[in-house]
User: Fold these one by one.
Assistant:
Number 1:
Amino acid sequence: MDLERLSTRNQVKKESWWSVLTLAYQSLGVVYGDLATSPLYVYKSTFAEDIQHSETNEEIFGVLSLVFWTLTLIPLLKYVFIVLRADDNGEGGTFALYSLLCRHARISSLPNFQLADEDLSEYKKISGDNPRNLKAKGWSLKNTLEKHKVLQNMLLVLALIGTCMVIGDGVLTPAISVFSAVSGLELSMSKEQHQYVEVPVVCAILIILFSLQHYGTHRLGFLFAPIVLAWLLCISTIGVYNIFHWNPHVYKALSPYYIYKFLKKTRERGWMSLGGILLCITGSEAMFADLGHFTQLSIQIAFTFAVYPSLILAYMGQAAYLSRHHVLESDYRIGFYVSVPEKIRWPVLVIAILAAVVGSQAIITGTFSIIKQCTSLGCFPKVKIVHTSSKMHGQIYIPEINWTLMLLCLAVTVGFRDTKHISNASGLAVITVMLVTTCLMSLVIVLCWRKSTIYALAFIIFFGTIESLYFSASLIKFREGAWVPLALSFAFLLVMYLWHYGTVMRYEFDVQNKVSVNWLLTLFGSSNLGIVRVRGIGVISTELVSGVPAIFSHFVTNLPAFHQVVVFLCVKSVPVPHVKPEERFLVGRVGPKEYRLYRCIARYGYRDVHKDDVEFEQDLVCSIAEFIRSDKAFDYDLDPEDESERLTVVAASSSSLEGVQIYEEDKPEQSSVEERVPSTRVKKRVRFVLPESSRIDRSAEEELTELTEAREAGMAFIMGHSYVRAKAGSSVMKKMAINFGYDFLRRNSRGLCYGLSTPHASTLEVGMVYIV
């Protein structure tokens, strides 16, 4: 018996290790495409103008030493061994760190946050703290963040800056990767011919790359990992060849002593060259940003045992070759391809272009994912999100963002026409994102990991100092291309903050002008107002989690009729990556049972996929039916203003086999004989199937029957179409932000139905003017 158990454990262990190794292999194509292609342009960018390659080899050996220690300290030590541990329930990235901090500090950028959201299984609660150790565990910092709104806004802006720089990198990375890969053509033609061929070829590849985005990556994704693996084997093999053939003693340059000699000789020029050296770590942030698609262990294994040694061998090989070649025909001959043996130069060129396309694809897909997260958290206007795969989670395509990135990428390529200025721009974007991650991680160490402040200070001082040196070296090249990421990030930051500010102001107006439940009960109880109840289900879309929205009173005032079943629906995002289907809906009553008024709150994580209209409608109706069936359905016997405190978590029909199941089918219905032209109308037939052990009273049975009839009659979605204006007496900045900025974004963003997955045919919009 013991032998059987031991063999079973060994089998499970082998399967788990096999799955980890499989994920590590797959991560090569998704995570490391950008980082793996960095040898194409690091040395060329470093020696572009700041320093010269001399006979003493002090410059090339110093650069190699800097590259080695930069790769060791930033991607390997910081990201692989520290930052990857700060995942948000398996998700990574700037917004993951921000949401993690928001939950532990009990702050939120979302205005309709509820205490019930803290009961979600992925919402890690703060518990088990000894009051004597509160200060040591970061509670003083936590209380400071809770009390000061300015600090909360600063934290949000910091997260948005990092996010905007990632989006800017989505413009620059495809340009520099493809440009550097295509630069191999310079060795097969004259420089005069090359300058007329290179840019058109790069633009053609970029146009094809962005034009194929709407097909998704799931069809060709299986080729990404082999391409990057082939590229890593290629550069490492060439590196080993160059080391043994040209300079076997190049390993001595890995000593930090050569950094000292390099900086002592080059001084200010050496410091400025750091802007090119930092490109060796471009793409490192992808290890953390793409954590949700893989596991922490798989990413660690892939980088430590495949990517890291391959890159070190590649840089050592290039340095070994250059240490024996000091007289170069021209400055552009110091690039990667000059160290490639001539016999295999063309195959290497093809593999390099494919690897550059894979790396560009990864950053483009990552940009789509970041925009979706920002939209979910109310920091970006609503855009059309297309799911390109029904099987693979996270495969999305955003048309507006795709074409915007393509135009900006082509503008950068045509405008600069070389890798020197593009590398300066890309370097500043990369190092800014890393600085933001360092700042947020120092807060995570104190607030989330409950470590002493000393650890946080040591982390931010050590890594912050290194990254600040690179940041200063990149910023000094502002006029030589570094202004591009600053301009792009400022534009995106302005859009994000204006949208977030306008959204918060609009929500505060809704809260201040919401109608009391007592008014609604008076409306229902009075028979002299001429209110007519029609068949069907009326869904009132609102961002409020309590009270009656002003659009409903506006609607009833102008059209004194509403449906026999009314649902106040709030679809909101919560600061967790995913919400389990069985925890999706919060359902409660608004008023007595006989009024058939319900409140339903559908909660989604910032990485969740919203369902289509049919499935969403079924889950919505079934959640109300499950609420009616459950024993938690109560009579209206408390204060009507506290209905939000009596919401019940109800599982959706598709996620729970123990609750109420809904079955719908279209039943053809012949027209009456009095009609001149015979026709067939389709009528929906609805059935609720209760669990076998379920017992309900007569009133609940009548309520379910009425819900069934209402569902068969149809469902209508009533949404508010708001026009936001700044109130009289507001400052000039507020009027410009609301009347022009936010209004422009609102008019050019997608409608609410895209965010709610509701059909256009059954949607009714109610216009209102918001004076904020």
Number 2:
Amino acid sequence: RNFDVILCVCVSESEGNECISANAKHCGECIQAGAKCGWCEQENFLKQGEALSTRCDEVESLKDRGCNDSQIQNPTGKKWIITNKRVTNRKKVTGVETNKPKPEEITQIQPQKLRLNLRSGQPQSFDLKFKRAEDYPIDLYYLMDLSYSMKDDLENVKNLGTSLMLEMKKITSDFHIGFGSFVEKTVMPYISTTPSKLLNPCTGDQNCTSPFSYKNVLSLTSDGNMFNSLVGKQQISGNLDSPEGGFDAIMQVAVCGEIGWRNVTRLLVFSTDAGFHFAGDGKLGGIVLPNDGKCHLEDNVYTMSHYYDYPSIAHLVQKLSDNNIQTIFAVTEEFQPVYQELKNLIPKSAVGTLSANSSNVINLIIDAYNSLSSEVILDNSKLPEGVEIEYKSQCKNGVVNDKDDGRKCSNISIGDEVNFNITVTSKGCPNEGKSETIKIKPLGFTEEVEIILNFICDCQCQNNDVVKKSEKCSLNGTFECGACRCFEGRVGRNCECSSNDMATDDMDQTCRKDNSTDICSNNGECVCGTCECKKRPNPEERYSGQFCECDNFNCDRSENKLCGGNGRCVCRECICDPMWSGRACDCSLDNSTCLATNKQICNGRGRCECGVCKCTDPKFQGPTCETCPTCPGVCAEHKLCVQCRAFGTGEKMKTCKEECSYFNLITVKDRNKLPQPNDYPYPVMHCKERDANDCWFYYTYAVNDTEREVHVVDKLDCPSGPDIIPIVAGVVAGIVLIGLALLLIWKLLMIIHDRREFAKFEKEKMNAKWDTGENPIYKSAVTTVVNPKYEGKC
């Protein structure tokens, strides 16, 4: 049985041209559809049956459809750098510096301000340079837990001011230090509210100060001795539960102007030997109002701890980031894991292990500062909806980062310069086209880049040459960008119809061809008595005509190409290019392909049809009727090439690829598999050739249309040589047999000779004349001697 298999390939409209898919009704909608979309404002651009939205297409497609380049609205984005102050190249000066710049005069980031005009889908990029300035001022605020367990730590911190000042002078000549302390909220169950405990929360004979939430003991100052003096007067306090109210203190330090932060590097050292309360824990004391993130200091004391809950971690992150504060958590080893997790949530923060009595606090601060300052991380403010930003960093030693790591560089030393490439892209028309401002800054630094975003939501032609209530639009619309933009309730290419009168039988009748039942040939919709043809997923394919009866994709094909790739499909018929003819434009009128080497058309043995020779002499074949497979000498002509390609031997073995690639080689097992003359409609020449080893090989040569084919038997027919083993065995056997025969003959001759000699002896014996007797000269060998003394006695 035979089965027909039909393969259907479906293409969704969303996979096609985004400009076509947008179904744009005016130029503004078109350019928001994508970066490649353009709008043709040429008045006579639309063909009959084409909808208004087909003015929106890819720019190259609009040109191919006949729209003048000058009539295509295709605005592009642009960038302007407004402020571009160079980064500061400043060296640390020992001694007194006369022309010392102010902190606000030091520049570490470039540029500082720019404007971007953004077109939907069209990215705009700019380069940002960051360089860590030497001798950059530093503000450090030391925030310490003064609960009773930190009593021995306080003794070491009392001399911290001058010691830390000396160490920090090695890094910067402009260093300010401040001090604050915290305990806990002053309500139950965090502290005891009995009168005696409110005066002295410690047990026994310990003299402690009254509990408090947070105190700003010393605002930021360059006087280290004042730090030692004021801190030396501090006393330990106490509370009931283990977690402390440090988050309340951090919030006040971040937002209160009384701290005295300058626009320089800001460090907050948070020292404790306990955990922390956070948002929600205030309910234990009946406090339910969320922390408002505002300053509530009176006489440098936080007065609203009983009113507002602890801040959340996210709230702290926001305030620390907004105020460019880098946090160093100096905590005991017991609480290292807790604060390591907290560090992962707070950008530009570090954790150091505090000894039991805070004796290592200076080294801890120096190490943490070096760690924080060796990394720069860019952060941006909240982006408008529809705006995306990408970072790519070029860091020290040629390290390049992108995606999530593209906003940061590590292992930066003072004086190192790193570069970032920042790309901003918008989609559609964010914020209804109103300008937006975003800011990019390195975390922990006060400097920032201000970026003004302007969105291109309309075309220039929508602002120029606009005619409201135009006669071209039947006084019912605005003529802009080459087309009518109808008022509400009006439809049609010229706004000539009311939307309430669209679906009437009279109008539908004008959209039927030859009184057929199909409206717009089922390829469009009847709008205001005129057919507007459907769109195809492929933007190159279109319906057209008064009744959408035409298209440009249902013409004849050749080699799977529309109109053979040599013409245009117009209303389902091919309009061929010059020098081409036929229904599928697949017949070439160029005779140059039929010229033989003798400059004759088809070698004078055929005619040229559609650029291909049709040979009239059956003996001749090939693209120009010059090949004669059955003519004498064909076998000898191709012998060497067949030999080198089939067997890798012969005189052309080394140049086989260069000289012998003009035919297709097909191998067969034996001679019976070779093509026979009657098997094909073209002549086949059988060949038998011999190589240098007297081996025969068999092949056929034929020309199939424009290709040459050689079928060859894959084994050589070589004459068989002598069988060595039987010959050797025969020679050996012959030698052995001859030897045995000679030996037997010799033996036989010896027997005959012996018998003759014996007979002769017997005969002579019979004829002997002497008799047997004693030999007269014979003497016996035995001598008998008698003993004279022998008497016969034993």
Number 3:
Amino acid sequence: MAGGCFGLCRLLQRKRKNRRGPGAGPAQEVEEEVQHFQPLQQDPGRDRPEEQDRARGRLRRAVQRLLKFVGVRRRTATTAPPELTAQPDTSAAELEAEADVSTAPRDCADSGDMEPMDCAASGDMALTDGTATSDMAPTDDGTETTDMAATNCAANCDMAPLDGTDTSETAPVNGRATSDTAQIEGTETSDMAPMDGTATCDTVLADTETSSDRAPTDVGAKADAATEGITNTDCMPMHSVTDAPSLDVLEQKTVSSANEVPASVSPIHQWLTCQESAEVRPPVAIRRLAHVHPGHVVMTLLHCAPACDRAAAILWRTIASSATTAYKVLPMLLGVMEDWPLHSVSTSDGDHVDVFALAATLALWLMVQEPQCQDALLVHAPRLLVALLCQVSMSTEQMPEEVSTFWRGCQEQHGLPTHPNSFVVQTIQALLWRLQWDQELVSVERKRGWDALLSADTHHYAVGLLAREMRRVLVPSYGPLARHLLGLLSREGPRWELPALAFLVEVLDYLDVSTCHDSVLQILARHLQSQCPERRRLALRGLLVLSVDPSMAKGICSLSEHLLELLCDGDGELVTMTLSLFRNVLQDGENSDGFSSTTSRLAEALRPVFDNDNSHVQLLSIRLFREVMDLLAEEGTEPWEMQVRQSLVPLFFRWHDENQCVAQAAWEALLWATSFLQRKDLEQLLKTEQPFRFCDCLMEKDMSQRGEHLHQALPYLQSPQEPLREAAVRFMGVAGWHMREQQQDLWPILKALTAMSDDDCPSVSNMRAALMATYSRAMRTPPAPLRRPMSLQQPRNSPGTTSQRSCSSS
């Protein structure tokens, strides 16, 4: 019906022109055409101009009331329509028969009584895409208003007005009447709809709605605003064309090879950069590209937007919204993250670029925020965790100027922490939260692990803590992770060695050493010789874990020379691990053959360790000494007799140690030594718990060793333990008694006693004063028999059976 009315309007206009213009030819044609519409031409009001004017006024008022009722809204166009091309002529019947459902704007073709209009409605004036496109013209305030009032019924100026009065001319709109020949900026357009989309009174008011991809802005336009003056078309270009192709064109573009990836990714990023709307539709084409060419897409994005601007952030999140695509992209990001500070790569188009490792971390941080990538993150979680921990360490210790400059730009754009190590820690926390590992997250926080990660002195401790806390959720992945860490540590040059080594130590017990026996020993041996005490400690911990495996014993024995050097280290923890490592290897007799060349040196190196300040080190060294001597005794007693004799005095003083476990271990070692030396007298005195009779017998029989025994006993006069100082003073008395024949031998004793500071223990002070007086007189007078010193008597608090039973040996 609307199409017929529209054609009728055109016919009536042509008739008026025929009446006014010269010549009867056109008028005659009009009369012939109008004969088909005789009922409408018999309007009695045609020859009454005054009634016609009143009818036009009533029509205008009726239209205004109708507009007020339906509430016309102004709309703001987000994009300008692309340039349209003319289409072949199409009849009105064809346009009515073929309903166009496409969303792309098009030109309407000339047909019959219809003049060509830019995107005007055809047939029944139903817009092909359900949106009002040709009716948008910019207003003075920069917005676009609809010149076509949306109504439910078609209203035409040449149709009968709502009150039943017919009019043959167009009604003026807002005081501006549109004549039969519209004058647009000096250009005469006869009966043609304006090309800029402005509707004349011949335009049917149709029911329109906004497009689904355009966000309408309701500015509360009133009915009067719908009929305000039409904007001058000179202020608006005939066609608005953007420089960049539309998103549909970009997404339909096919990529046949990897070399074409940068040419496809960069335009998508540029298109997103030009979009100012916050609700821009994410380009799904990036997911298809990343699924097929993950490496090239990652490197292109990191190269063109390293700081992850708004457009790049949309792309990374779009990639993460697909689990399968994220699964392929994450390994590529890991490759960049593991190269600090720059990752050098050649793109598919031949460019050699350097990408910041932190840029990949920033991209990961954006991807973690998408819940769809949880499964992909779970698969790569172990490697991601290691890479992030290593980045924390490197960003704490090494921050090149170029990295600092890059990070300042990222910080300003995203509001990130000032220092990148804090951001990386936040990324680790976000990763654990996304994987729903809340228990581990809280446990590390409770133990202050996150704060420890940010300190260079405690970072390695925090890495080990995190690795231990992750055992519950990552145990199945620790085997492959250990092999991955070995690969990182095997590379040339420093590769985050301290954090990687700290994590490796915690997962070594999950490693199948049969497949990597040589590589793991080579890595640990290199760090065992490092000048860094933390690396030496971690290497020892790793060897200690491997020492329980019998297949590794022979390889560890090859490192015995380096291990012996560590026994002299002042770090008690380091010495403790070294002693434990030796004991683990020696427990199996088959594995001890590798130590045959160093056992004698080991026994010699163990004697000074008896006097270590750490009681646990003392205990381990005494027990290891006994085990080594048992091993040597199998080869014969004569080669090792001197080693055993030199251990008697240190073991004798440790028998008086305040730590009952150490005292018990020393007593057992002494008992074994006397049996080894076949000294039944000394063995009997030990069994009857007569320590100073044991000392007297030792000095009496070993005349050749008296000087050495005395030399070994002198340091115990300065021992921090009172029982050891008292035992040393008594030993001086016994030694002086047996060395009285040679006065020059008394000088070291007298000098050592004089050097002793005043002792808080009265018994020790009294014995020291008595011995000094006795030896001073002996030095001033000729040699004479000395009284047997009271120090030979049994002390009140001597080691006894009670103390021996209080601590059992292992």
